[in-house]
Amino acid sequence: MSNFIGIRHEDKYEMERRAPLTPRHIERLVKQKKLDIVIQTSPKRIFSDEEYARAGARISKDLKRCSVIFGVKEIPLDSFEPRKTYVFFSHVIKGQPYNMPMLKRMIELKCNLIEYEKIVDEQGKRLIFFGRYAGMAGMINSLWALGLRLKDFGLGSKLTRLKQAKDYHFLKEAIEAISAVGQQIAEEGIPHELRPYVVAFTGYGNVSAGAQEILGWLPVKEISPEKLLTLHQRKKLPDNLIYKVVFKEEDMVERIDDHSFELQDYYSHPEKYRSKFEQYLPYISLLINCVYWDQRYPRLVTKKAIKKLFSRGRPKLTVIGDISCDVEGSVECTLQPATIEKPLYVYDPGSESITEGHSNEGMLVMAVDILPAELPRDASESFGDVLINFVKPIADADFDESFDDLDLPRAIKKGLILHNGELTSEYTYLEKYLHNSLQ
């Protein structure tokens, strides 16, 4: 029942240039769905105000006339208005303490909050996500970082011609550059001292799939985690192949009591499990971390394990691309998120400290926490292709009705965290985090 739908400008990060809907999507919503769209002006968004205006949107400094507002990242406290509906990545579902004041403010103003991350199908699978592009950008950055690191070590590498993801205008440009490197590797091989070259992926979801898609433009052969442990013992290996290993949960953790692994049991009782990932680290050249992690789960790469690797000299593992980017999380040496402007730092296992850049001795870490923003045009187009299907139902909904009577697609209703300033039944667990934030 909204007269105007708003698209806000992004202001959490200077380099955030994504939009939830592109001019192409806006044109369809205006012409086919007869919606009134207001675009908050932005000097940095990857799509210009003029592009949106040509698509039929109104351009405005504010969104005061809009009752439904779509964004990408968190919104400043003073930007919320009473009883409006907001759709964005709120980052509150884990009880993140830094966003509890934002959630509290929305409660005070009796707002509605729809969280993209919780818009899921009947099997709980996310429907709207940037994860694939996080994986793609993270893999591009990790290959670029690897090229820098090998050059630091005095090893010639074809990867040095690659750039950071943000420096490509389109994803297609990055793929063409990586494909050219792949062709050279296939023809000329990999330096002897780097063989066998192994790229390991933790996780197999959307993020990992995006990262693997990029690696696939190089000459790759996939092997199992079990074969990785004996790969170095083989006397004759091709000199122009990169080996890929994808680790699932059963490859990375084991029961503490030596009972057999059960996936659902691990999700329900992670405290019964411990990591067994350290055994693989000496044989991995580049690690791409793509797993979901919170404090209930065991860490995969500990500070102790990194220190042990370096106690034997410079390890085979050269770069960690921590796309998951949980601070001191599954990769414990990720001490802080990196930025798009400064995407790399070196972790010193002796002092357990970090230094910006890529030149110091230690483990090079790429841990940018808004990776899809490095591919803003492609990521926004893909995201909007799904979101567009839900815009009119959200616009038509009467949020003054009770939750049970609210006419919304089931997937959207699953993502409704706040309804008129009250936590919906699935999210009442956030009350304890709100309470703790006030103490």
Commentary on this structure:
This protein has 439 residues and is an alpha/beta fold. It folds into 2 domains: 4-119 and 376-437, 3-Layer(aba) Sandwich (Rossmann fold), CATH 3.40.50.720; 131-374, Rossmann fold (3-Layer(aba) Sandwich), CATH 3.40.50.720. Helices cover 30% and strands 16% of the residues. The protein has 13 helices and 18 strands. The chain has helices spanning 23-31, 49-54, 100-108, 131-152, 171-188, 206-215, 225-231, 249-252, 263-268, 303-310, 376-396, 410-414, 430-437; strands at residues 4-7, 36-40, 58-60, 68-70, 85-88, 112-115, 197-202, 220-222, 242-247, 253-255, 273-275, 286-289, 319-322, 344-348, 353-356, 363-366, 416-419, 422-423. The strands form 3 sheets. An 8-stranded mixed β-sheet has the order 3-2-1-4-5-6-17-18. The chain has an 8-stranded mixed β-sheet with strand order 8-9-7-12-13-16-14-15. A hairpin with a 2-residue loop joins strand 17 and strand 18 (422-423). Helix 4 crosses helix 6. The longest helix is centred in the first third of the chain and has 22 residues, at 131-152. The two termini are 39 Å apart.
Key traits:
439 residues; alpha/beta; Rossmann fold; 2 domains; eight-stranded mixed beta sheet; 13 helices; 30% helix
Quick overview:
It is built from 13 helices and 18 strands.
Tell me the helix content.
25-40%
How are the strands of the biggest sheet laid out side by side?
3-2-1-4-5-6-17-18
Straight-line N-to-C gap: 39 Å
Could you give me the name of the CATH homologous superfamily of the largest domain?
NAD(P)-binding Rossmann-like Domain
Major β-sheet annotation:
8 strands, mixed
The chain-level mean pLDDT equals 96
Structural class: alpha/beta
Which range does the strand content fall in? 15-25%
CATH topology of the largest domain: Rossmann fold
Low-confidence stretches: none
Helix count from the secondary structure assignment? 13
